[in-house]
Design brief:
The chain is mainly α. It is built from 10 helices and no strands. The chain has one domain (about 1-5, about 25-210).
């Protein structure tokens, strides 16, 4: 694993010298909508439904928590995909941007990042007892990831100590994966991001369904 990581870091530094800032940042910028919608928007909507007793009405119907949460995931997924298309079109039209990697690999990575981030929102929205707690929890998760994951402040310019700290954030790992696929870096160096995001998704989705609050 260490050998793969070192090989990936060498390839990354080489690519950073040969690509524009936009090419290096496209993967990170494309995650802002995912983070905003999945970590901030989604849990607040679910919690709002709970506070307005909409979920309580659903409880006496055949509707399951999985269906309720899945509907919100689809809605915010469409928002995120629309944002990705707009960001790409703006970059391509006004700045001549083009993806150097494989589109299928990039889109697969994008969907994985989306799944991981949305699962965090599902966890908060699924178990938060009220809007105030949901808003506080979402803010505590959203702003550190937005600022320190590499979505706004480039990961490469951070001090080494800070880089090691923010590596625990799932969005940091997601941006590394998107950067690798968008710049055509060796994908054998991004096994850790894939594993981290899958583990986060499984844990958060399981807890959100198991301990879902109707009221």
């Amino acid at each position: 694993m260490a050998q793969y990581k070192k090989r990936w870091q060498v390839a990354l530094m080489k690519n950073l010298r040969t690509h524009t800032f936009l090419e290096q940042s496209f993967g990170a910028v494309s995650t802002i909508a995912i983070c905003a919608g999945g970590v901030m928007g989604l849990p607040l909507v679910v919690s709002d439904y709970r506070s307005r007793r909409i979920l309580k009405r659903f409880q006496v119907t055949p509707t399951s928590p999985a269906l309720i949460l899945a509907v919100q995931v689809v809605i915010y997924a469409l928002y995120s995909i629309a944002s990705l298309i707009l960001v790409y079109m703006a970059g391509a039209i006004f700045f001549g941007y083009r993806l150097h990697g494989s589109w299928p690999q990039f889109l697969a990575a994008y969907l994985l990042v989306m799944l991981s981030m949305f699962s965090i929102g599902l966890l908060v929205g699924g178990i938060a007892p009220n809007m105030k707690i949901a808003s506080a929890a979402a803010s505590l998760l959203y702003f550190p990831m937005l600022i320190f994951s590499g979505a706004t402040l480039p990961y490469e310019v951070m001090p080494v100590a800070l880089q090691k700290t923010v590596n625990i954030l799932p969005l940091t790992q997601g941006i590394k994966l998107l950067k690798a696929t968008s710049l055509s870096l060796p994908i054998d160096g991004v096994f850790l991001p894939v594993i981290v995001m899958l583990v986060v998704a499984v844990i958060c989705i399981t807890i959100s369904l198991r301990f879902f609050r109707w009221e």
